[in-house]
Amino acid sequence: MNATLACIGGTAAYDLLQDGALVAKRLGAQDTPFGQSQPIYLCQSRFGEFLFLSRHGETGYEMVPTYVNYRANIYALKALGVRSIVSWSETRAISHNYRIGQYVIVDDLVDETVARPRSFFDSQGLGFVRQWPVFCPSLRQAFETTLGEEHCEFADRGVYVSVEGPRQETPAEVRKYASYGGELIGQTLAPEVFLAKELQLCYASLCYVAKYAETGSNSRPFEDGRILQEATEQKRSREAVERLPRILERLCDVLTRTPGICRCESSMAHHIASGQIGWDWRTWFDDVTPRVPPAQRTPVT
Length: 301
Ligand SMILES: [Zn+2]
Prior knowledge:
Order of helices and strands: EHEEEEEHEEEHEEHEHEHHH
Number of strands: 13
Number of domains: 1
Bound molecules: zinc ion
Strand content: 15-25%
Structural class: alpha/beta
Radius of gyration: 19 Å
Shape: globular
CATH topology: Rossmann fold
CATH class: Alpha Beta
Largest sheet: 11 strands, mixed
Helix content: 25-40%
CATH superfamily: Nucleoside phosphorylase domain
CATH architecture: 3-Layer(aba) Sandwich
């Protein structure tokens, strides 16, 4: 297997597995020190192989973002030889500078999640990782080239607010996020991007704008029984997802001619240089059992 690129698919991406749009061999769920990953697929394209993982489930939206095992998913991809991860995510736009159906290559993030493990290094005194650039600049450049060659409409920057969910935002929350510069709302890029950095992986996200965030108006009708509540929303999401296999195929080609300008592979170098961890990343997790801080240990009598 030669795949060094992986795609983590978000809402509706599982349809690509069900309808055969991705030509893929099922490698299955992978065991990791952090639990079991989602099933992983090896996909073939004209320009090379890549791995695919559906974040929310294999056959449908089976798991809300809070309960996705992000650590197992990222660890499993790293263990299979991946060096670059592409995240595919649906978003709601706060800023009306974005158009519905547009792609956005986000460049910054606000983490508003509250109930997810955020690091591989619980209680290990590690993970002091610089967060600029937040997303891999080489992968972001490759996205720009890919979307240009595929004649897709896109924006080359955006500030993504990662919220806990699964409920959607209130109008007051939207005003709060807008007040500190948030432009798009989603539920999955945090902690994924931070975990990828801890394993020295390149990670970038291609978002698509499925709708605008709630503002308190009555302009959007509510339809019972649907995750995406308007038929037009469902149609837009489906169309955006249907383009994904072609975009990934083109990305495989573009990456071979995109110069590497990132330092993602050395994001943990300071911890290695100080002797806190070794060069072999697999040894970093020989003991992942949470350690009890000294202050909480029972005194020996
Ligand atoms: Zn990189």
